[in-house]
Design a protein that fits this description.
Blueprint: E1 2-4, E2 7-11, H1 56-72, E3 78-80, H2 89-97, E4 102-104, E5 108-109, H3 110-115, H4 117-123, E6 125-127, E7 133-138, H5 142-152, E8 158-163, H6 168-173, H7 183-194, E9 201-207, H8 211-223, E10 228-235, H9 246-255, E11 260-263, H10 269-279, E12 283-286, H11 288-292, E13 313-319, H12 320-333, H13 338-355, H14 357-365, H15 371-383, E14 389-393
Parallel strand pairs: 3-4, 3-12, 4-7, 5-7, 7-8, 8-9, 9-10, 10-11, 11-12
Antiparallel strand pairs: 1-2, 2-6, 13-14
Length: about 400
């Protein structure tokens, strides 16, 4: 345990106080990508799952434990989704300030986490205010996954298995959504954690092209000991430009007896309300929309989602510059790589950079980044007179 500016921060290994000089924007490929898979062969996919060990009594006990834990956490509905090098501690804390009730860590590579102190130090940190927290791992070796889960279980509320990453690196490493081709292996991963950890296991998944396959999948996860399922409402071949299938998420919710979270097309609070109503899910997750607007869950929305001339909204008194400043102050407390900081600055100031590309170009050219430089850049943008406020619905008197 270390103390940072008076706040207790729990680290697997202590961060260096000064972020490194990385200027490259983070990619979606996790470290240790040269390792490829963990040496396990894919098994032939089977479309129909039949539980071979569960009984009605076991189902009831598992269901009760899942819901008891969820209620203990006050049943959070507004959740920061896992984003590789995007849902790190400072950003999670910013989102929590603006309404997020729970959050996921970025995806952590289980083998790298097990083998490298440096990786643990750079990629995972938390603090006592960072709860409820899901710590997400990718991997395909049950023993390694259990080893790393043991390391974090006292710092989190769920250990999450990434079964949804669709990127090419996940294909080559045989993890994420590509484990959908090996259901016996998925079952072994979930069961290994569920029978050994003191903290519940959750799984974040994508849809199969055939709905019945998805139903069989989630029932298998539930029978194997999974206590919560987060459903990204797209298949592994679909991208964010394609609308998420909320009806399929509703079917998942109706097929299992444990908490279910919905992921996809959550851009503002109207989407949250509509998604909860359509799917019946116990909570919603947002990713890309939060990168643009970390205050989403507090009811703020960008001008993109306010119709011109609509008098139902008003300036909420918060703009993107304000959020950047708040984020940077959190980064000073909880240091992260400069590449992550740069990526978030681009996410929040993108509209301003479109109007003032010269400021963006100067930012790109700056070789010695500092917090002071970015603070001054925000002041410079504000001095140009073009504002991009965030809006809130007018209160009804």
């Amino acid at each position: 345990m270390t103390s940072t500016n008076g706040l207790s921060t729990f680290l697997i290994q202590t961060h260096s106080h000064t972020p490194n000089g990385l200027r490259r924007l983070p990619t979606l490929s996790p470290p240790c990508r040269h390792r490829g898979g963990d040496g396990l062969q894919k098994a032939k996919f089977f479309a129909t799952y039949t539980s071979s060990y569960s009984t009605e009594d076991q189902h009831i006990r598992s269901e009760e434990r899942a819901w008891t834990h969820w209620r203990k956490l006050k049943q959070p509905k507004l959740i920061v989704a896992p984003m590789y090098e995007g849902s790190e501690l400072p950003f999670r804390m910013l989102c929590r300030k603006y309404g997020a009730e729970a959050a996921y860590t970025p995806m952590l590579h289980s083998r790298c986490f097990a083998e490298s102190k440096k990786y643990r130090s750079k990629e995972f940190s938390t603090c006592k205010e960072d709860r409820p927290l899901f710590v997400q791992f990718c991997g395909n070796d049950p023993d390694i996954l259990l080893e790393v889960a043991y390391r974090v279980e006292s710092y989190c509320d769920y250990v999450d298995i990434n079964l949804g990453c669709p990127q090419r690196i996940a294909r080559s490493g045989n993890y994420g959504a590509f484990l959908m081709d090996d259901l016996p292996l998925v079952k072994s991963l979930v069961k290994k954690l569920a029978t050994n950890l003191t903290v519940p296991v959750s799984c974040k998944i994508r849809l199969f092209p055939l709905l019945q396959d998805t139903i069989n999948y989630v029932k298998m996860l539930e029978d194997s000991g999974c206590s919560l399922i987060a459903v990204h409402g797209r298949t592994r071949n679909e991208r964010t430009q394609q609308r998420a299938n909320w009806d399929a998420i509703k079917t998942v919710k109706n097929s299992v007896k444990i908490p279910v979270l919905a992921n996809g097309n959550i851009r503002h609070m109207d989407d949250v309300e509509n998604c909860l109503e359509v799917t019946g899910a116990d909570g919603v997750m947002s990713a890309e929309a939060l990168l643009d607007n970390p205050a989403l869950f507090a009811g703020f929305r960008s001008g993109d989602w306010v119709v011109d001339g609509d008098d139902g909204f008003e300036n909420g008194g918060v703009d993107r510059g304000s959020l950047v400043v708040e984020y940077l102050k959190l980064c000073e407390k909880y240091p992260v790589k400069w590449g992550i900081i740069v990526s978030h600055v681009y996410g929040m100031l993108g509209k301003w950079f479109e109007v003032h590309p010269d400021v963006r170009d100067d930012f790109n050219k700056e070789k010695e980044l500092s917090f002071e430089y970015i603070y001054s850049m925000v002041d410079r943008l504000r001095g140009r007179g073009v504002q991009f406020p965030l809006y809130v619905k007018k209160s009804r008197l």
